[in-house]
Design a protein that fits this description.
By secondary structure, the protein is mainly alpha-helical. The chain has one domain: Rossmann fold, CATH 3.40.50.300. The chain has eight helices and four strands. The chain has a two-stranded parallel ribbon. A two-stranded parallel sheet has the order 3-4. Helix 2 packs across helix 3. The structure holds adenosine-5'-diphosphate (ADP).
């Protein structure tokens, strides 16, 4: 977890590779659907372009189908999900059904100003439609309102590790693994 631009996608790939599980990114799946012009993509695009969350029913169904695929049987890393309290409950239900367990929640903490400049830079490299200054600001508001409260829920379950997401990518990755080792030992 972490605000837009915290580096979730980058770290998700390293963590997933390390544990030999798929990284499941809701943002990536939505973007793939947008570029393929699927019905799901058309539905999601209006929300994404405005910096709003895609409705829970749409997102939940998509994740439910994805974690049911064979490559997720032995575990998976979620990137960008859950993002609302309703999604937290839904995920609990899904994994109760599939027999998985939530081992840990990595929260990347970052400096707000640094984030905006990272995202504007990414806009130039990747050309994401939602990386304009207004939309970035809206995404940050939505994160603070709807997603940040979730960290409390997971903290109460004792599965949160907070990791400083500032600095070199490699340093952040190292901190993530150290923090996860600490969680496994506790
Ligand atoms: P960010 O860099 O903002 O964290 P993502 O690539 O993870 O971006 O997500 C991009 C957009 O996809 C979000 O702004 C939102 O519209 C949609 N999205 C991704 N995950 C979810 C989710 N769990 N629930 C609702 N909408 C989502």
């Amino acid at each position: 977890m972490g605000p837009p631009g915290a580096g979730k996608g980058t770290q998700a790939r390293f963590i997933a590779e390390h544990f030999g599980v798929p990284a499941i990114s809701t943002g990536d799946i939505f973007r793939a659907n947008v570029s393929e012009g699927t019905e799901l993509g058309l539905e999601a695009k209006r929300f994404m372009d405005a910096g709003e969350y895609v409705p829970d029913e749409v997102t939940n169904l998509m994740v439910r189908n994805r974690i049911d695929e064979d490559d997720a049987a032995k575990g998976f890393l979620l990137d960008g999900y859950p993002r609302t309290l309703a999604q937290v409950e839904e995920l609990d239900g899904m994994i109760a059904y599939t027999g998985h367990r939530l081992d840990g929640v990595v929260c990347l903490t970052v400096d707000q100003d640094e984030i905006v400049s990272r995202l504007l830079q990414r806009a130039q490299v990747e050309g994401r439609a939602d990386d304009t200054e207004d939309v970035i600001r809206r995404r940050q508001e939505v994160y603070l309102e709807q997603t940040e409260p979730l960290t409390e829920v997971y903290k109460q379950r004792g599965i949160v590790v907070e990791v400083d997401g500032m600095g070199d990518v490699d340093d952040v990755t190292r901190r993530v693994f150290e923090a996860l080792d600490g969680l496994a030992e506790s």
